[in-house]
């Protein structure tokens, strides 16, 4: 009887057919494959726990034994720390990038909104054309393919070849279609942020920015393949290079062409200015993508282009990706609607650029905390689901939800209390400060549902189910569309961006609730009572913490145009003081009531602090 783990038994027959005990005509059924003198291929080594009594050892061994049952808790903590560290550094540089962009171009004028629109479309289009082939599909499929006889080599080669080829063709097509895409995302009109000159400038930027679609796609394909092979660091550290390049491009732009308000008029932009800013943005994404190739050998695989796309299981991947594609289509339709509604704001009102800034601030706790914890959990849940261990999937969902909700609640409370100095850090005028802080608070109301939605979706994805999240996404799309329609019809121009953010919050909350109810039924429980009790406790601790932070903000003159909003430097100091106050009170209260999740949640943070 073979002693291999369950995931290896599928290869036992082929292994046994070529393994013979030394000196015998055939192997007795009770023999272990490991005791045989084996002439089977290297892939049969997994049937013997990684050792064979004879024959050459494989030349290339994966550093991560993907046939092993699952990622252990220690690996998850180390991976979470690595991901959080990379994300933190990247986000800090991202904020520097935003601050430099605001200094060079401003926040609420047609020029910066033209660049913001053109530079946002590539990531939206990437999500549309390749989003269904990234984490939701690739990680579970690569984990399963790793149990093939070749360790997943053929599957990964064919998948990457297909993905890169398709995305290159699509990138060329969308770049040529730039004049058609800009009117799709923005409404042109007199007295709005996008007049004829702004639309022409956005189109010129789009020609330089749209090639990013290809580099985004290759970055995601390589990065998710690395994650599936338990090489978690490079994917989250690569954006650091992108931010460095973009900051350098903006600094060079300021040195050569000056700063705001010289660039508020879209008709004043020259081809050289457009090329430097748009080309610098694309160069950063290209570098972010190409740096991942330096880490490919860590997967234990060798990439060779393979255009024979039949017979390796891509059909199952395509089916799963099909539902994901549908989900991304719904997402992109809502983004188009959001952008069009935002473009109804006045020329000096909060619009696309402010929404982008507030969204990046909103995503800070989600990307550093929720994403870094959920990513290694997702790999482990995929392994559990592949082995049919639904109970372990349920346990991982409960653990990850409780820890993530605890952390993002505290972080969201800190950012919300410091919203006004955050606005002063990125804004140049009182109107920009109010616009950024108001939109940020509207987004933050939905932070916990948004992060919970992310985890719950990955529960479905680990089970190989992308159809159910698609159907729930349709419901979310209908919800946000109705809310955005109300904003377009009822909101005054200065409040349009706030209305867009609130519509997003409402829709995310509805989506998270429905996902939880359906997944609870699917896996026969979600430890819902414990998750809800803990969530209520975290919210209760956040209330006095926010009160303390707002008190500090008042003392710093945040509500009277005092120190907290005087300039960028004082705003930064105020953000630090208010945020530290909120976090200190929040975690002190959790420590006082001895919340069990505190130890699990703070372990990666302590590791992160030691690294930094």
From TrEMBL:
Pfam (any one): MurJ
Principal location: membrane
GO cellular component: plasma membrane
Alphabetic keyword roster: Cell membrane, Cell shape, Membrane, Peptidoglycan synthesis, Transmembrane, Transmembrane helix
Region (Disordered): 49-72
Keyword Cell membrane: yes
Entry's Gene Ontology BP terms: lipid translocation; peptidoglycan biosynthetic process; regulation of cell shape
Classification via InterPro entries: Lipid_II_flippase_MurJ/MviN, MurJ
A GO molecular-function descriptor: lipid-linked peptidoglycan transporter activity
Parts of the chain that traverse the membrane: 83-105, 125-147, 159-186, 198-219, 240-259, 274-296, 316-337, 357-379, 400-427, 433-456, 468-490, 496-519, 531-559, 571-593
Keyword Protein transport among UniProt keywords: no
Localization annotation: Cell membrane
Origin: domain of life: Bacteria
PANTHER family in UniProt: LIPID II FLIPPASE MURJ
Record-given protein name: Murein biosynthesis integral membrane protein MurJ
Higher taxonomy: Bacteria, Bacillati, Actinomycetota, Actinomycetes, Micrococcales
């Amino acid at each position: 009887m073979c002693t291999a783990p369950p995931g290896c038994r599928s290869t036992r027959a082929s292994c046994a057919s070529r393994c013979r005990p030394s000196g015998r005509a055939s192997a007795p059924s009770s023999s272990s494959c490991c005791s045989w003198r084996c002439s089977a291929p290297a892939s049969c080594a997994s049937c013997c726990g990684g050792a064979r009594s004879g024959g050459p050892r494989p030349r290339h061994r994966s550093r991560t034994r993907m046939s092993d049952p699952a990622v252990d808790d220690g690996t998850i903590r180390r991976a979470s720390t690595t991901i959080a560290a990379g994300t933190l550094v990247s986000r800090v540089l991202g904020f520097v990038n935003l601050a430099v962009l605001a200094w060079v171009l401003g926040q609420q004028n047609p020029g910066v909104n033209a660049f913001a629109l053109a530079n946002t479309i590539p990531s939206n289009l990437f999500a549309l054309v390749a989003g269904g082939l990234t984490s939701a599909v690739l990680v579970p499929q690569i984990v399963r393919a790793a149990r093939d006889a070749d360790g997943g080599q053929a599957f990964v080669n064919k998948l990457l070849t297909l993905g890169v080829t398709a995305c290159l063709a699509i990138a060329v097509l969308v770049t040529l279609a730039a004049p058609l895409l800009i009117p799709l995302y923005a409404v042109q009109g007199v007295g709005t942020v996008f007049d004829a000159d702004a639309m022409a400038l956005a189109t010129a930027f789009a020609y330089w920015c749209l090639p990013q679609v290809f580099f985004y796609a290759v970055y995601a394909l390589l990065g998710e393949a690395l994650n599936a092979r338990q090489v978690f660091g490079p994917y989250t550290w690569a954006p650091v290079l992108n931010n460095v390049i973009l900051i350098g491009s903006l600094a060079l732009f300021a040195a050569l062409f000056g700063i705001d308000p010289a660039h508020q008029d879209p008709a004043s932009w020259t081809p050289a200015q457009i090329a430097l800013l748009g080309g610098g943005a694309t160069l950063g994404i290209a570098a972010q993508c190409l740096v991942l190739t330096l880490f490919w050998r860590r997967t234990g695989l060798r990439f060779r282009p393979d255009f024979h796309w039949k017979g390796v299981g891509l059909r199952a991947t395509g089916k799963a990706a099909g539902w994901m594609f549908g989900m991304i289509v719904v997402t992109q339709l809502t983004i188009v609607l959001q952008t069009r509604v935002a473009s109804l704001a006045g020329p000096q009102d909060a619009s696309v650029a402010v929404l982008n800034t507030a969204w990046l601030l909103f995503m800070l706790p989600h990307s550093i905390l929720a994403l870094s914890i959920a990513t290694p959990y997702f790999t482990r849940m995929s392994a559990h689901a592949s082995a049919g261990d639904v109970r372990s999937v349920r346990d991982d969902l409960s653990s990850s939800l409780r820890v993530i909700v605890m952390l993002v609640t505290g972080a969201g409370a800190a950012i919300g209390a410091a919203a006004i100095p955050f606005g002063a850090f990125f804004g140049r005028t009182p109107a920009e400060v109010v616009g950024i802080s108001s939109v940020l608070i509207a987004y933050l109301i939905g932070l916990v549902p948004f992060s919970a939605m992310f985890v719950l979706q990955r529960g479905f994805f680990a089970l190989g189910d992308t159809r159910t999240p698609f159907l729930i996404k349709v419901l979310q799309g209908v919800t946000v569309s109705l809310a955005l329609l109300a904003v377009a019809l009822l909101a005054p121009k200065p409040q349009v961006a706030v209305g867009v953010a609130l519509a997003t919050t409402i829709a995310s909350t509805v989506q998270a609730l429905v996902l939880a109810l359906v997944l609870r039924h699917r896996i026969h429980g979600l430890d819902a009572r414990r998750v809800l009790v803990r969530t209520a406790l975290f919210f209760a601790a956040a209330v006095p913490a926010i009160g303390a932070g707002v008190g500090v903000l008042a003392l710093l003159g945040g509500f009277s145009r005092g120190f907290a909003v005087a300039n960028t430097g004082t705003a930064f100091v105020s953000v630090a003081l208010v945020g530290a106050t909120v976090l200190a009170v929040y975690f002190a209260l959790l420590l006082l009531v001895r919340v069990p999740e505190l130890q699990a949640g703070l372990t990666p943070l302590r590791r992160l602090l030691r690294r930094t």
